[in-house]
Design goal:
Mean pLDDT: 89
Radius of gyration: 14 Å
Number of domains: 1
Largest sheet: 4 strands, antiparallel
Strand content: 15-25%
Distance between the termini: 25 Å
Structural class: alpha+beta
Low-confidence stretches: none
Keywords: Plasmid
Number of helices: 4
Number of strands: 6
Shape: globular
Helix content: 25-40%
Order of helices and strands: HEHHEHEEEE
Strand order of the largest sheet: 3-4-5-6
């Protein structure tokens, strides 16, 4: 299962947020609680609608708590010069499911259900 902490780990990996994982998690959780917009855990049985709602809620909260002013992590800045869409995707990797963050459809990084950094499955991805 992937919960808000999984999303937080990916956001902090992909962006220079100025927060550690615990601080960013607390900010996102507080914002989502105040908005009454829960992020329910996802797994391979979750519906597409469930995943889309989580994606929208997390990205809305992230934009609000960071004031919309974050930069890509240094390791991605040279590869990504224009960024249109950021979303999350549930993928099947050799060790099981992973949650990845995508930049314009290209997987940047992924985490396992245990919150460990995981190599994304083969396909288009960004190297860092």
């Amino acid at each position: 299962m992937f919960d808000l902490r999984s999303y937080t780990l990916l956001l902090n990996e992909a962006f220079d947020t100025g927060h550690d994982n615990d601080d960013l998690y607390c900010l996102l959780e507080a914002f989502l609680d105040a908005e009454n917009e829960p992020v329910r855990p996802v797994n391979t049985d979750s519906s597409e609608l469930h995943r889309i709602l989580n994606n929208n809620r997390v990205m809305h909260a992230f934009t609000r708590v960071t004031g919309g002013s974050v930069r890509l992590s240094t390791c991605f800045r040279q590869q990504v010069t224009r960024l249109g869409r950021v979303d999350f995707v549930l993928l099947e990797a050799s060790g099981g499911p992973v949650l990845g963050i995508r930049f314009d459809g290209v997987v940047a990084c992924a985490v396992s259900p245990q919150g460990e950094r995981s190599p994304p499955p083969p396909g288009p991805l960004l190297r860092h």
